Amino acid sequence: GKRIMITAGPTYEKIDPVRFIGNYSSGKMGFALAEECARRGAEVTLIAGPVNVQCTMNNVQRVDVESCQQMYDAAVHAFPQMDAAILCAAVADFRPAEVADQKIKRVGKTMDIHLVPNPDIAAELGRMKREGQTLVGFALETNDEQQNAQHKLEKKNLDFIVLNSLRNEGTCFKSDENQISIISRKAKKDYDKKAKADVARDIIDELVKNLS
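RE: above sequence
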């Protein structure tokens, strides 16, 4: 009976009609979370970037977006009606300041692209969060993992954060497995490497504690 919003996948930030800035996120972790929540009886709003993953559960409302701005707009619109949000998407921090109307041709030896910041979805939802709502973030790090995750937890007013690292081979992008730590304001718990469906159960177990 809980209402849960989940963001998943990458965002694409257009350079011209055929090129974009993006990342390697497959969306598998976010979709596993959505299906786990749905199996437990939640009403799920899944805001998905451009991915090739399908969700089979009937009680998942999927909202497809492409850019960070579109994901931001959808999340800000949906969040006030939610009991919790899990921000699993790998959102681009920057976008090209200008998008060319036509395909950019190869002219000269270099090309400069000026980037400007995208809106910060986690920070805005952390600002909007009211009493009784739970906000969960993700931190994918390459160094100083716990320190960076702890900083994000506090800065963005999250209730807990899921940390994973590119140092753990065979996890993260495109993989069917993940290895995480869950960090709250009072504790940190490390988990073994396992299938993303099993990781989703661990994360939702932690969410249930916050919603109880």
